[in-house]
Write a structure and sequence with these properties.
By secondary structure, the chain is an alpha/beta fold. Helix content is about 40%, strand content about 20%.
């Protein structure tokens, strides 16, 4: 995802001199090509995330389109006051780019995991939130973010993210994508968690369970129509996310279901439940240790279809 983002930024900067790349020191090496091509459109702000966000707001007030890039948890949590007051309150045309969301920085521990960023920023007025699932989608959301006049947050995994899409598709801001049809249950996911959910859904199909998979590349605005349609047509909704389930994608989906009077739908959340990610190791190790690997997703989906509750998911 990171490389796809950087390629899109390189393309955008070539089209428009108002496109600026701001980094908080951590992205210096990966920005080498961009910095060489567009030195006047690149600013290394040092390890000072709050200052970077405020500076981005100031640049936006002068007609520039700054993309402020750093590790997601340092950006969202450390600079929240500046994001709220300098960017969102003033409706500034600032693009915030958080790298390493979920627990893809697995062996660095909870201090480097972006597992509450959706909940923290979803409550802010005027904020658009993108959560792409693969490199192609990352390119699409980056180009879309540049065209939006207002605050945007792009949450990315890191380099080496597997492909979800085999070819380009009709990307529309705020419109979820059905990656796999199904009538028995709907699995909803976002960002880096989509790949594991896709593997689980494919294995479920081989076992005779038709699970629909819906990818929410846009968290805000949420695709209400896709949520309602899936709930009505399958009657069961399982949300899978590398987030604390309080306020994340599951929270957004639950809000829509309740507001639409669909309280009778079978609904279950898979994610971190009032906890930080447990354990250290590879990314897959953390998915397994925190109950978000494909076998756990399959177990949860099968229990919902059979109307049972597996241990640990009640």
């Amino acid at each position: 995802m990171r490389n796809a983002y950087l390629q899109a930024m390189h393309e955008l900067a070539g089209r428009d001199r108002n496109i600026l790349a701001l980094i908080s020191d951590n992205g210096a090496v990966v920005y080498d090509k961009y910095r060489s091509a567009y030195p006047e459109q690149y600013f290394n702000m040092g390890i000072s995330e709050q200052n970077m966000v405020s500076a981005a707001a100031g640049l936006a007030s002068c007609g520039k389109i700054p993309f402020a890039y750093t590790i997601s948890n340092f950006l969202v949590y450390r600079a929240f006051e500046q994001i709220r007051n300098d960017v969102c309150l003033q409706k500034m045309n600032v693009k915030l780019v958080g790298i390493g969301v979920g627990f893809v920085y697995s062996n660095l521990g909870p201090t480097h995991h972006g597992t509450e960023d959706i909940a923290v920023l979803r409550c802010l007025p005027h904020m658009t939130i993108f959560s792409p699932a693969d490199p192609l989608e990352t390119r699409n959301v980056t180009l879309a973010a540049a065209a939006i006049n207002g605050p945007v947050y792009i949450r990315l995994a890191t380099g080496g993210s597997p492909a979800i899409y085999e070819k380009d598709y009709d990307f529309v801001v705020g419109k979820a994508v059905v990656l796999r049809p199904g009538s028995d249950i709907t699995v909803m996911s976002t960002g880096s968690g989509v790949h594991e959910a896709l593997q689980a859904v494919q294995e479920l199909a081989a076992q005779g369970i038709a699970a629909r998979l819906v990818n929410f590349h846009t968290i805000k605005p949420i695709d209400r129509e896709a949520i309602v349609r899936a709930a009505r047509e399958t009657g069961k909704v399982l949300v899978v996310e590398e987030q604390n389930t309080s306020g994340g994608l599951a929270g957004a989906v639950a809000e829509v279901l309740m507001e639409e009077g669909m309280g009778g739908i079978k609904f279950r959340r898979m994610g971190l439940k009032d906890s930080f990610a447990q354990g250290y190791g590879s990314y897959h190790d953390l998915q397994e240790m925190n109950g978000l690997s494909r076998r756990y997703i399959m177990e949860a989906a099968k229990s919902m279809v059979a109307d049972t509750v597996p241990e640990g998911l009640s």
